[in-house]
Design goal:
Layout lengths: L4 H28 L10 H56 L5 H22 L2 E2 L2 E2 L11 E3 L6 E3 L9 E5 L2 E4 L4 H5 L2 E9 L7 E9 L5 E12 L2 E9 L14 E5 L6 E4 L7 E5 L4 E13 L4 E6 L5 H13 L6 H50 L3 H25 L9
Parallel strand pairs: 7-14
Antiparallel strand pairs: 1-2, 3-4, 5-6, 7-15, 8-9, 9-10, 10-11, 11-12, 13-14
Helix pairs in contact: 1-7, 2-3, 2-6, 3-5, 5-6
């Protein structure tokens, strides 16, 4: 095959154009410090980079969530530590006042000290972070506790302080960052165990436990579970005093419990998702939450137990102690036990929140490593190697200059040069 001058010229011009294109690409890479200027430069690399960028962005969001959540948790732990110190001081004062012969002036001084502790605890319970109340559950706009209208006792102000504030800290992990005020300031009677799925309709099971009023006086909570249909029960309850007399003028309405037939877990209470039942008897100063969510239904003999996180409200217990001291009455053993019960619960919750903080800090460290790794992977596909790029630029520039020299020797030739 004869190679004509036209073919040589065409090939030369094509090679020259390719050289210019490569040089232009290298110059743009040097200017932007990026290897990929458009998806067509490296389709596979572009796909990898896009994937890494999505994962990096998700990791950044998780890290921001954790940063915010950790700040909230640290503020919560700080207020709990202050409560810890205050209640420990109150316990020492109560213990001393019960083991000594105090005169009226001493009792008045102790009453003043306890009154100061009550107000301090109230302020701590209503602490805020970034405009949000720490212990109000999901109702972050309302102070969780405050005085009643008659200023004689302290009550829960929002309708519900049991809610959990959650953040996503990884693709598969949602973390609660708050301590619901109910766990700290309310008495929660938690039911556990099981009802018998094989029992006949109209059969009953019972359970009972002690509950206390604000003065530390004991009462008995009796619960009855009557099977009304498959996986369905009516739960009724009563509270009786030491003479077995009910504190209710009218029996409370029954609660319908429905269990999932496949898992045995409690599915609903009165047609709604399981939630705590607030039981209040103002005349007897009894108030607590009943948590039935842990009861299961199994094919075995019914056995339900009840446990309380603490005996009674710390605020109203201290108010009762203060008022008694003002009247010359020393704290009782039951009142001291109630304060100790709150203190023990407070320490347990401090430990719980400390564990949450440690877990989140561990995830934070892991995410920081992932974020750095994603950035390195993106950089390996996107960022140029400056030293190598400079050599490539010099080589292409040399090739281009050589091509120009060749052109100066080839293109001017005419027909006379071949005769």
């Amino acid at each position: 095959m004869r190679i004509s001058d036209a073919m040589m010229s065409a090939n030369y011009l094509n090679d020259l154009d390719n050289t210019r294109t490569k040089l232009d690409k290298l110059q743009r890479q040097m200017s932007s410090q990026k290897k990929i200027q458009s998806p067509s430069d490296d389709p596979a690399g572009t796909s990898r980079v896009m994937g890494y960028q999505v994962k990096s962005a998700q990791t950044d969001i998780y890290q921001k969530n954790i940063d915010s959540g950790l700040s909230f948790i640290k503020e919560t732990l700080s207020t709990m530590s202050d409560m810890d110190t205050s209640v420990a001081d109150v316990l020492q004062t109560i213990t001393a006042s019960r083991n000594a012969n105090l005169n009226s002036s001493d009792m008045q001084n102790i009453a003043t000290k306890i009154d100061s502790a009550i107000n301090g605890l109230l302020d701590l319970a209503n602490s805020q972070y970034d405009g949000r109340y720490l212990y109000s559950g999901t109702d972050q706009s309302t102070a969780p506790v405050g005085y009643t209208a008659d200023k004689k006792s302290i009550e829960i102000k929002p309708a519900d302080i049991t809610g959990s504030q959650n953040i996503r800290i990884s693709e598969n992990k949602i973390q609660g960052i708050n301590l619901p005020g109910s766990e700290l300031f309310s008495t929660i009677v938690t039911q556990s165990g099981n009802l018998d799925s094989s029992s006949a309709v109209n059969s009953t099971a019972t359970s009972s436990t002690q509950v206390y009023d604000d003065l530390g006086n004991p009462y008995t909570l009796n619960l009855t579970y009557k099977k009304t249909a498959a996986n369905t029960y009516d739960m009724t309850y009563d509270i009786v005093d030491g003479t077995n007399t009910s504190v209710f003028a009218t029996p409370p309405a029954a609660k319908q419990l429905v269990f999932d037939s496949s898992t045995g877990m409690l599915q609903s209470i009165d047609g709604k998702a399981p939630a705590m039942t607030n039981i209040t008897v103002p005349g007897n100063k009894i108030e607590f939450l009943l948590d039935s969510s842990q009861i299961l239904e199994k094919n075995q003999a019914a056995s339900v137990t009840n446990t309380a996180n603490q005996k009674t409200s710390i605020f109203n217990t201290l108010i009762a102690i203060r008022d008694n001291l003002k009247n010359g009455i020393a704290p009782t053993a039951d009142q001291e036990a109630a304060v100790q019960s709150f203190y023990n619960n407070l320490l347990n919750k401090e430990s719980k929140m400390g564990n949450v903080q440690n877990q989140m800090e561990s995830v934070q460290t892991l995410l920081q490593g992932k974020s750095s790794n994603y950035k390195d992977l993106i950089s390996s596909d996107m960022d140029v190697d400056v030293a190598k790029l400079l050599i490539d630029l010099q080589n292409q520039q040399y090739v281009l200059e050589t091509s120009y020299k060749m052109a100066s020797m080839i293109l001017p030739k005419s027909l006379m040069d071949y005769l």
